[in-house]
Structures are given as C-alpha cells and as structure tokens.
C-alpha cells in the first residue's frame, strides 16, 4: 500500500506539474514579453494554424529541460532505417541475460539469508568446504536491516562510483569489466555459510562485502547497456522501437527469473546443496560475459564525432564553392547580356 501510494503521488505530480515539451502535444505556447512575465498563449485547434509555434525549431533543445546536443554522427536519419542491426540485437540479448541473473540474485539473497544454518561450527573449524547446505539462519528483522543498508550502498555506487568509472574507463570498458565481474559476485555468496555464527561482526562484514561487490557490478551494468543501445541505434527515429524491445526483453527475463530461481533453490535444498542456485546463476553470468565479447566495439565517440564533423565540413565547403562558382557564372552571363544590349556609338 505504501509503494502504491508513492506511485500515485508521482502520477499526480507528473500530470499536474510537469510541462509538456512535445511540439505536437502542447495546447499552448509560452511567449516571452519584455514588459511582463512569460505569458501562456493558447494554440488553435488546427495544427497548421497555430498563433505561435510551441517550439522554435531553430533551437537545439526543442523545449526540453536540458539542451540536446545535436551530434553529426547519425548514420541514417530516415524513418526507414533498419533499427535492429546486429549490434543492437546483441545488446538486447545482453540486457536480457543480465536482467535474468540480476533478478535471480534479488530473489535468492533474502531466502538464503533466512534459511536455517545446516553447516555446524565443527565442520567450519575442519574447513570442510564440500558441505554446502542451508543458509545463514538470520531473522526477518536482521534481513530487513541488512537490505535497508544495502539501499544506501546502492545509492552511493550510483551517485559517486558510476560517474567516476564511466569517465575514467569509458562506457565500453566499464561495461566489459562489470559483465566479467558478475560471476564472481554470485560465486562468493555460498561461502558466507562458512563464517561461524558465533562471530556476528565477521559475518556482517562478509555479507556487506558481498552486497557491495554485487551492487558495484549490477548498478553500473544497467545504465551502461542502455547508453550503448542508444549509441548503437542507426538513427534517432529508431530509438522508440529499440527501447521498447529492450524493455520487453527485460520484462520477460524478470518474469522467468523469479520462478526458475525459486525452483532451483528448492531442488538444491532437497539435494542438501543450497549453493546450486548460486553456481547456476554464476554460470548464466559467465554466458553473458562470453556473449558480450560478440557485441563488437564501436569507434570511440570522439573519433566518430571528429570524422563525421570533418566530412560534414568538407561537404559544406564543396557546396559553397559550387554555389559561388554558379553565382559567378550567372553574374558573368548577365554582364555579357547587358553589354550586347547597349547601343553602339
């Protein structure tokens, strides 16, 4: 009920307070007046008969909150451009794989924390790591507190670590690193059961370390793959279809991940091996890491930008030279005609 109330408040705020920026959807325009404040002026019902355009198409921001940088790297701006090229398809598959093992982790981790401890301290003292049964035996209150602090870890990584990593390593390299690191984040979780319950401080340190490692990989991966999808799209007109397909793939993966992960954990419990779902999740993450290697790396954005701008400038210079030559030829022709029309003495 609390989550539903928060969503309802967001919907109301969005409907009443957020300004529409789409030029075809706005029912008014904001006209600047030097003597008074900005005035909203209604638009006529017919699209072609507006009193004032709701947006100046000569500007770069199109009325949005942040100005849009018009990059000269579009491969094809026509609406008939092929949206789903090989790179886009591979990135959508990568998003589906990532979403599956990420959702499986989110479902498994609270179950594993609350599952009864099946590894006695005697086995831990003998360092018999062949026994992989049970969980950590934490209470519901302890799990809730751990997940509460896990939220702050996630916020810190998203607000501080993500921009530093993306700026320092670049989008593609950071995406490769986090994709390759995901299996590690899943494979170390079952080892928490070998920390004695009589050492709660050491156990908490191990738990938060595992959560921090997984958050580092998971939180960085999702926005990175979305950025790569946008860069891989052949044109801006294709972004709607590409984002829709990516969202559908993510939703399908989430729907499948929860029951499958639960069934694997149940089977692992019956086999007295609760590490089984973690190892399977790690294997899926390994498949995702291998699949990313087939995505193919694009040129760096700066290189593409410079090359494209150079080509555009060259074309513009050629066009202007051609126009100037044409104007010169036309001026010479008219001068010749004027001379032939003058009366002779």
Account of the 3D structure:
It is a single chain. With 345 residues, the chain is mainly α. It has helices at residues 2-17, 86-114, 121-125, 140-169, 171-187, 200-232, 239-270, 276-292, 301-341; strands at residues 28-31, 39-42. The chain is built from nine helices and two strands, in the order αββαααααααα.
Write the layout of secondary structure elements.
Layout: H1 2-17, E1 28-31, E2 39-42, H2 86-114, H3 121-125, H4 140-169, H5 171-187, H6 200-232, H7 239-270, H8 276-292, H9 301-341
Antiparallel strand pairs: 1-2
Helix pairs in contact: 2-6, 2-7, 2-8, 4-5, 4-6, 5-6, 5-8
How would you concisely characterize the structure shown here?
It contains nine helices and two strands, in the order αββαααααααα. The protein has helices at 2-17, 86-114, 121-125, 140-169, 171-187, 200-232, 239-270, 276-292, 301-341; strands spanning 28-31, 39-42.
Q: Report mean pLDDT, rounded to a whole number.
A: 76
Largest sheet: 2 strands, antiparallel
In whole angstroms, how far apart are the ends? Answer: 102 Å
User: What is the helical fraction, as a range of percent?
Assistant: 55-70%
CATH superfamily of the largest domain: MFS general substrate transporter like domains
CATH fold topology of the largest domain: Growth Hormone, Chain: A
